[in-house]
Amino acid sequence: MEALRAVFELYPLGARPKPWSYGTSGFRGPGETLISVACRMGPFMAIRCIAAKGPCTGICFTASHNPSGDNGLKQIDVTGEMLPEEWEPYAEAVTNAATSSDCVKSLQDLMEKFAVTADMLKSAVVHLGRDTRPTGIEMTAACKAALEAVGAQVIDYGIVTTPQLHVTVEASADKGADYLSTTVEAFKILYRPSSPQSIPEVLVDCSNGVGSLRMKDFAERLQGVLKLTAVNTDVEIPTILNEKCGADFVQKELKWPTGMQARDSTCCHQVSIDGDADRVVFMVPHSSSPGSLALLDGDRILVLFASYIRSLLDKAGLSLSSRLVVVQTAYANGGSTNYLRDTLRLPVTLVPTGVKYCHAAAKEGAIGIFFEANGHGTVLFSSSFLKMLREDPAPTTAHAQLLALSQLLSQVCGDAITDMLAVEVVLAAFGWTLETWLSLYTDLPSRQLKVTVPDPQRLKTCWDQTRVVSPEALQTEIDQAVKPYAARGPARCFVRPSGTEPIVRVYAEATTREECDALAEEVKLLVTKHLGIK
After folding, report:
1. Does CATH number 1.20.1300.10 belong to domain 2-174?
2. CATH node for 179-296
3. Which H or E run contains 337?
């Protein structure tokens, strides 16, 4: 391990106000502070590769929808999915080791725990990829140096979308096909517009990120089938990445991204993806506010996919019971949850905020659909369900469509591009416009607030984060605050502590904007009363 210690000395851990914490899928922060983290996580993922007996693991250097100065590491397990939660503390221990020697010792302890020898590491394979941020170059170099020091094999794909790297690792595990070819083939099977005249132009805001490059690839391969036009594709100027564009900007600001304005939605579908192409939202001109937009977010994509899959199961003569699992977080708009439960008659599973919780819950079903409101999600098909479809002695067209859908949609993570293509498939299949899709239900007015408190971790919630467990009196008072609003229509409010900031987040819904704002403010005062400075 002397060679590895020498590499760690070249990339020392910088000073931080608090230790590194593993987030939804890895570490994130200012780009220049993450070079040592990238260095340390290379050997860590090599150890994981051997411990999990996989063909490979992966690391994508990206900060997704964040500004260009940020960066991060998204760590990919041997299945192509996210790193198992039980390995997150090990990653934190290695990352936060104070010295190079301490870091080597932490890695050696991990190897001993999982019976991994130095010789075994020579057969480990780690796939690397990055988005367009300049610090990704340095992070990749540091990671490769550490991997080479332990003799592991490195496959560097350069600039790729995060979903593409996930699928590449998954394909290594399954000996699967090429990402672009598989996606295009499945789309061509499924996409059936009523006429050539009904095919809209799909105008995609690529947030000046890596999705620009993949969108160009897909536009070429789908020429004559679907017209894809990309805007905000300038990857040569890093500072404009996600700047007034991208899915996160559109969803939070409810504004047209740079380079877009209201267009007739019958001939142009407008879409926005984020900087590493794992989130997607659709936009349509607002019917009562000229120049503004109405948002078709992750909640609405989930409802659309659930409707389509339910219809395919019916056509295939397959029982819906125990087949379809629909997963949301507490931040899903109540309008979407009510539609799923009351109109589609589908049970909804609530999980804590974070795509890793959504993904795990969705895997419990034969078919699992999850989306966060931010546009990150996908549809998962179990291997046993796919086997049943393939071996059914009386297959229908719907059987083939379900199989093709499992090829189109990522089985390991949210993929903005494949999700976008699947939306086009469903709209064409139903003969729906964007306005028809938008009219399925009405969003309840919602409000989010932040409350600064000395110690947000004093607040304890139940598992799905919808109710306070401690202080118990706080939940009692929240219930009392909600009661008069709920008497007049749908209303709810929940609070949860931030894991990264000294704040408690408040989320409220009610039947009118005024009542929603009033409820949020009332609960904000209750949080201050119970958790603020006495």
Report:
1. no
2. 3.40.120.10
3. helix 334-338
